[in-house]
Amino acid sequence: MKNIAISFLILIFSSCSLFEEDDIIRTIPVDSVFVNNTSNLTGEFTAKIYCGSMCWKETYYKSSTNGNDVYIKTFAVTDGSAVCPAVCVETEIQISIKLLVPGNYTFHFWRSDTSSIDTTLILGM
Questions:
Q1: pTM of the model
Q2: How high is the pLDDT of residue 20?
Q3: Cβ atoms < 10 Å from Cβ of 93
């Protein structure tokens, strides 16, 4: 009986998804960046997108670090089955990056595959 209950729970959790089947995830370019706060090893930013969509269900970011370079990409999730008006709305994404080692870091906010908005901060010193 215990094995059946465990199997049932595994089946339920494995069928759950963070996004629905018809959701579309796409990278969105950052138009401007504001440094909100720097403390210890954390940089807090606001990334602005001037022509966002009213149909974005969610926005989020991913970051990766390579030495003293931190690369940040922002993403939007939309419902692929929804009809969306072609209206630009300003969107802000709050970004908090915690680093492990003090130093001089350059943050690269993605605009396209060939350009980014860059800012350099000294953290934890």
A1: 0.79
A2: 60
A3: 21
